[in-house]
Amino acid sequence: MAVALVLGFYNLEWVHSGLERLVEVRRAMGLSFGVLSTGLCGGILPFLYLRFGRRDESTNPRYSWLQGAGLTAFWAYKGIEVDVWYRIQAHVVGLGHDPATVAIKVVLDQFVYCPVLAVPVTAAIYQAVDSRYDWKGLLRDVREPHWYRRRVLPVLLSNLGVWVPAVAIIYTLPTPLQLPLQNIILCFFTLVVAHQTQTRDGGIPASCKLSAQGSGG
Q1: Taking the model in full, what pTM does it have?
Q2: CA triple 115-119-122, angle to 5 deg
Q3: CA distance 63 to 1
Q4: Are strands 204-205 and 199-200 parallel, antiparallel or unpaired?
Q5: Please, are residues 205 and 151 in contact by the beta-carbon 8 Å criterion?
Q6: Which residues, other chains included, contact 128 with Cβ-Cβ below 8 Å and sequence gap of 6+?
Q7: Which residues pair with 204 in a beta bridge?
Q8: Alpha helices (H) along the chain
Q9: Who has the most CB within 10 Å: 8, 46, 127, 212?
Q10: How many CB atoms lie within 10 A of CB 211?
Q11: Phi (first) and psi of residue 172, to 5 degrees
């Protein structure tokens, strides 16, 4: 879908003009566009799927409305963060769409921003939401050995698998269109994060059970 939108933007007049109108809407709304669009795609839509979609209660407990509100608030904030991040890269690296510029942005995005800030914070928030905001339990778990390996690394690996090709596509578009395309992909990726950070059997995420058992955990 992302590739089709990019190809359409550069090759089909009706797609180009439609996305240009979206750029005008973005400019008119400012940062509030990122708050609304990312909150919708990263929070509301995945939450509705997780709450009302088909599920196995033993492995996919239903999220409460309070949990959904927390996830929506988190992704609404992330809309501002990601928007600012894209603007910073455009200012520092440049506005070009050539392979070298895109490659530099991909490296900064996936191998600096994500492992240092974006993925650890996201994993921690989903862990807190999944435990119904047991912040004390989250802090205790963070203080336990190998928290990054246990909680963050599985999400980071999925992040690389999805977002390395995704941001390579995203960065070929003009900066004002990068966040809307990111939102489309985000809607699907947040479902991956929700399933990977979901806890069971005393708070061990399903995605981490094998690694935890292998280390004596």
Answers
A1: 0.80
A2: 160
A3: 28
A4: antiparallel
A5: yes
A6: 70, 134, 135, 138
A7: 200
A8: 2-11, 13-29, 31-38, 45-52, 65-92, 99-108, 119-130, 135-143, 147, 153-170, 175-196, 209-214
A9: 46
A10: 16
A11: -85, -10
**At which residue do the structure tokens 């999944």 appear?**
130
Task: For residue 216, give the 3-state DSSP assignment.
Answer: coil
Residue with tokens 């005393």: 202
How far, in Å, CA of 112 to CA of 180, rounded? 22
Q: State the Rg of the chain over Cα.
A: 18
Amino acid at 23: V
- Structural domain range at position 129: 2-214
Displacement of CA 68 from its chain's centroid (Å): 15
Both tokens of residue 129? 């939401």
Burial class (CB in 10 A: 0-12, 13-18, 19+), 67: buried
83 in Cβ contact with 58 (< 8 Å): no
What is the amino acid identity at position 52? F
- Number of domains the chain is built from: 1
**Contacts for 209 with CB less than 8 Å, ≥ 6 apart:** 201
Residue with tokens 């269109």: 177
